[in-house]
Amino acid sequence: xxxxxxxxxxxxxxxxxxxxxxxxxxPGSEIYGGLSGIYDYGPLGVELRHNxxxxxxxxxxxxxxxxxxxxxAILMPERVWEASGxxxxxxxxxxxxxxxxxxxxxxxxxxxxxxxxxxxEKIEWSSPSVFNLLVETHLGASEKSATKVYLRGxxxxxxxxxFKNVVDSMHPKIPFGIGQIGKAFxxxxxxxxxxxxxxxxEQMELQYYIRPDEEEGKRQFAFWxxxxxxxxQSLGFDKTHLRLRAHAPDERAHYAKDAWDIEYETPFGWKExxxxxxxxxxxxxxxxxxxxxxLSYFDDSTGERFIPWDIECSGGVDRAVLFVxxxxxxxxxxxGEVRTYLALxxxxxxxxxxxxxxxxxxxxxxxxxxxxRKELQKVHPAIAWDDNGNIGKRYRRxxxxxxxxxxxxxxxxxGETPELKETVTLRYRDTGSQERLTIPEIAxxxxxxxx
Length: 451
Ligand code: ATP
Prior knowledge:
Blueprint: H1 2-7, H2 11-21, E1 25-27, E2 39-41, H3 43-62, E3 67-69, E4 75-77, H4 78-84, H5 86-89, E5 91-96, E6 103-105, H6 109-118, E7 129-132, E8 135-139, E9 147-151, H7 156-160, H8 163-170, E10 176-185, E11 200-210, H9 214-233, E12 242-246, E13 258-266, E14 269-280, H10 282-291, E15 297-299, E16 304-306, E17 309-316, H11 317-328, E18 329-334, E19 337-342, E20 353-357, H12 363-376, E21 383-385, H13 391-401, E22 405-409, E23 423-428, E24 434-438, H14 439-450
Parallel strand pairs: 3-10, 20-21, 20-22
Antiparallel strand pairs: 1-2, 4-9, 5-6, 5-7, 8-9, 10-11, 11-17, 12-13, 13-14, 14-17, 15-16, 18-19, 22-23, 23-24
The protein binds adenosine-5'-triphosphate.
Adenosine-5'-triphosphate binds near residues 316 and 318.
């Protein structure tokens, strides 16, 4: 069934359309014409995104003894970005079309080709110039006293500038990590491919601080590279659709001693999903210099003081949303009809199960189904209710949003066939098959699937 996905050149359009139609993702401020590279998440999209973030938080932060969570502000002073090198180096090469003056990233051959194809005549490009991606604004009531600030271009710096606060308040033993999830902003020259390249997006990151030692650096880097790769797979990806790729030395960011990407095979080629970067002591050293605060670490087990090195895991939340939708999209035939469904991993599916009474106009069925839903919500709150239309239509609606289970209460549940009393029908999304189980058995299945 996967073949529908990657061989289908219209897959992106299908995803964009399903995302809008079923309340996952909408163009930002659409009724005002929208903004390029800006999207809003609807009722189901926000759940899917939340579940991915929660899975990150559980595995990278909550379940570990050596990692702390935090949440830094979006607005940060100019000096932070001077220290991190972003005001100087966070740039992309830009070329301008001499005919219509549209600007395109010089290193994106697809964008160049698409623009050239949009003109009938042969066009000329300006020579490349550098363009800084940071989004700036001003804080303060009067123009004179207003301070220039930046909407963070990456969430990373919010962690580094709090390194000392976390050390002083939590007294962690090295090695230890600090993780966070939050919005980042980049004035991308050519936002494209739906939510793949946006101007406002969310990141989930871990900064893992280690002793400044080459061997330790290699060991920790290898550990986090594998950890991030298996975590990404656990979102429901087929192993062969993901790969790890090392950056060539000239491709690495200004701070990176080593850098790898996790890439996903999209209909528009292999694309970066996640980065693992060996940032060395770049950030803490620069923030020490620029802020005048000593950001070294004192290791009381050895009596040494040093600036730790940082191994970073950095993933885009929105890219994960897009990639799981691409991966999960299926079309097949069920009961002689074509259907569309999302084979989402139950732990990230926006709705875990839907409960419905076989008939809407039978109060005794409705009441029993309401009780069943309440019971199942003890396992997970995201248990939906649907009593609209016939049962087949309800199942199809849930298939299309990736709900793994549907539960139907009928007259047998109430005891019409005595041996079936207190049992309900459980229907599986991927196969459409059904079985009769008790409510505690169904609760157990849901519990096991959403782990
Ligand atoms: P790219 O090469 O695609 O521009 P990057 O190497 O600049 O990405 P990083 O700075 O390493 O990206 O950011 C970490 C993660 O944040 C990326 O792996 C990606 O998942 C996500 N990300 C970066 N830029 C964007 C964007 N414009 N829109 C959505 N997600 C993004």
